[in-house]
Structures are given as C-alpha cells and as structure tokens.
Amino acid sequence: MQPLTELVKLESTRSCDRCAGYLLPGRIEASPETVYRIDSDLPEIFLSPGVLYTTRAELPEFLTKDGKAVPREMRVQRNAGFAGIDGSFEVFVYHMSNPAIDGAPTAPRERRVVVYAKNVGSAAAVLKPRQIMEAHGTMAKAHGPESRLAYRVMEDRWERMVDEVRLEPGKGEVIAWTPRLSVKGAKGKDETSSDFVTGLVRVDVAGEEGKGDSKAERQNPPPAPSLGEGELRHGVFEVSVIAIDGAVEAEDLGSAAEALLDVGARSGEGAMDLTIPPPECHVRRVVGVSKNFLWRSEDVRLDASRLDERGVSFLMAAPGIQTLQCPQAKQTQDLLLSPGFVPPETIGNYMQEYLVTLTLVNPGAAAKMVDVRFWKQDADVGVAWQVDVGDRAATREALMDYPTLVEWAGGWRKDDLPDNTRSFFMNDSARNEAQWIEVPAKSEKTVTIRMMPVGTSSLPFEVRVVGR
C-alpha cells in the first residue's frame, strides 16, 4: 500500500483566524467553466433602482439606508491587475429588494435585476449567455432558492433568455435578468412575490469552446458563435448588475438599464458596512471580480482503523483574511477588482467548486465502518454535492453525471446529526442519519466529492471523517 498522509494540525494565536482542525492539502486551479467570476452581493438589500455593482473603475454615487453618501474613496475600486473582462465570465447575484421602506413614494414596488454587458474593446464580440435565477421559498432550507440554484448548477440545468448577443464596439445589451420581484399575487414564470433573488449567469465568448447547457451538449459541444472574417475572437467588456423597474417590458430592458448606468441603487445596509474600510476581522459580504477557480485536494490517505466518533476534521473554504497564521489552509481566490468597503480576499465563495479525494486505508484484521460528513459548530452551512465511493478516485466529468444532494448542517439546525454534522453518503430517505460505508480488512476505499457551498452559508466550514 502507498504511505498514509501525514496530517498537519492547524493552529493560530490570532483571534481573526479560523485555523482549526487539520490541513486538507490541495491547490487552486483555473475554473473549467469561465475565466472570470463577478460577485454582486453587497449591498445585499437595495431600496431603489440603480447600479448594484459594476466592473467600471468607480461605482456610481449612492446612499446608505440612513441616507449617508458613500464616500468616493469607498467607491473607487482597488485594482490588482484587472484590465477588463476579456474572456468568458460568470456573475453571481444575491440581492433583496425592499420596497416597503424605500422612502420614495413614486418609486416602483416591483423590480427586476438585470446583467448588462458593454463592449469597451475595439472589435465586435459575440456573447452566448445562460442563466439560473431562483427567488421564491424559504431561505437556508434544503429546497429553498439558494439550494435550488445549487441543484441546477451542479446538474447543468440552465436557461437561455437570449441565444446570443453581438456587441459592436461601444455598444451594450442586457444579457440576463431575474423574474419581476415583489409582485403581489404573482403568477407565471416571469414574476414572483419574493423580494429575494439569487442566481448565476455564465457567458461564453465567440471563439471559446462551448460549454453547453445540458449533459449532451457538454459531451458534444455546439459550435461557438462566429464572427466575421478578420475580426478579433473576443472583446473587452464592462459588466454591470442593475436593479430596474419591474414593469419594463423585455424589449426595453436595455434602454432601462442604460438610463441607470450612472445611478447607484440606494442601499438597505447601514453606514458602517459601506462608508469605512472593513475593520480587522470583519469579513463582510463579497463584491468584486476574481479569476474563477476550482479547488482540488490531493488524495489524502487516512488510516481508517484509527478513526473514532471524534474523527478528523479538515478546514474548508477559508479565505486569506482568516488564515494569516495558517496560510497553507487558504482555499480561496483574492479579488482583482473590489470597492473599498470590502476586503480584497473573497469571503463568501458561494457556488465555487471544490473537489475532495479521501482514501480510507484499513490495515487492520477486521472491517471498519466510516462516515464522511460536513459541519459547522457556531452557525449553518449548506452544501451541494455529488459523491462516489470506489476503488479509485472518480473524475470530475464522471461525478457531474451523479445525483446531486443539497443539505444544511450546523449549530442552528434541528434536523442534522447531534454533533451538527451531515453525512455525504445520505439519501433522500435518511437525510438526518449517519450513513456508514464499510472498508474491508487489509483494503481501502476512495471517496471523491464534488461540492459547492450554498448561498446564505456561514463560511468557512469543515469536513469530518469518523469511524466506529
């Protein structure tokens, strides 16, 4: 048998750090889906139409909930080598409209969030967007909007609102949009009574390999949209997330968005979160641009015969701001572009992909029962995952065709295991039970997990391997 992995305990004397449990060795890789990731998550709550986030160098002027102007130094974005969106990209949207306390009696109650892309390059460009937007239901539940988003992303179940968009230099278009929010007595697919919406938009660019929006297309990608002879294969884009009046018709979304490009949506957040830089240890929510990534663990080989109910826990999804004294445990990508009111280290990592491989080695003379779980002690974490147990590690491509499960665990849950964990081996008929796998004597089993943290989660979290 190959040697076991030497476990490294994570410790820190810094109160901001989350250096606990053991190191899960691994690496950040470029995402196989898109080049860039844009997060629009602060202000989480907005009170009026306007820009929620943009990749322009400076955010438009906007006010906090209590009417204070966000200072220009907080709106001018830090730049860590960002020169524009010049390849495929995705946009994560996580916002709540709050029309009841808008303070402007003529403002529309019903709103919609749109994603607007403008070609700021010197050549024409063709974009092919696909999206998943989820709104109605109770947040932080197994079948709530964030969980449904995770199910659909893991299973490649996308919608195309437009097939493709050709942008000439200097021109822009709305490429994705949410349902109309806050609609009383909502009916139909394009409206919801919910004020909250979360979603993911993925955009392929002409000349890049088509990713497809179904399993069949993923295996046999359709041809990429074509440009004219002699034209560049891609453009450079400014991307903006904008709240607009929900009554705007589909054919007028572009003009409505353009009318608000220099108007910031009034925030529903307090002044502290937007008018000053984050205090030490204050992670806040994520807003900005990063290189999209996939985090892949090494094949960690554990002695299953020594595992007990306490098990071994590995730290997951910890950013740089929480790993200063255990930097090897950082599993997140820093922001290339970000406003001054958030840390440059990404925090949420919602819907980012993680691949974990654990080989359970049993050198003993008797079979050993093992469970692999995720958990959070002081809050809740939701995870979407696909899992394989076999004689060797499963590939990412194979896991993408496995059934998806989404569940929550943590200190605030009432339906997880008593130690605030949830088994990766669970099934729909046993969602709150331990699910043991057998590792035969003088043998080994490999567990491969493809997973994503679900929006609303409190991060970081931990993966625990236990035995009996």
Task: Characterise this structure.
The protein is 7% helix and 34% strand. By secondary structure, the protein is mainly β. It has two domains: 26-30 and 292-467, no CATH class; 36-275, no CATH class. The strands form five sheets. Strands 2, 3, 6, 8, 9, 11 and 13 form a seven-stranded mixed sheet that branches. Strands 1-14-17-23-19-20 form a six-stranded mixed sheet, covered by helices on one side. Strands 15, 18, 21, 22 and 24 form a five-stranded antiparallel sheet that branches.
What is the element layout, followed by pairings?
Layout (H helix, E strand, L loop, with lengths): L25 E5 L5 E5 L4 E2 L3 E5 L17 H4 L2 E2 L9 E9 L13 E9 L5 E10 L10 H10 L10 E3 L4 E6 L18 E10 L9 H5 L17 E9 L7 H6 L13 H4 L11 E5 L1 E11 L8 E5 L20 E2 L14 E10 L5 E8 L4 E11 L5 H4 L5 E6 L10 E3 L13 E3 L3 E11 L7 E7 L1
Gyration radius (Cα, Å) is 23 Å
Number of helices: 6
Described by the principal axes of the CA atoms, the overall outline is globular
Order of helices and strands: EEEEHEEEEHEEEHEHHEEEEEEEHEEEEE
The proportion of strand residues reads: 25-35%
Quaternary state reads single chain
Q: How does the major sheet shape up?
A: 7 strands, mixed
Helix content: under 10%
What would the keywords be for this entry?
single chain; 468 residues; 2 domains
Brief overview:
The chain is mainly beta and 468 residues long.
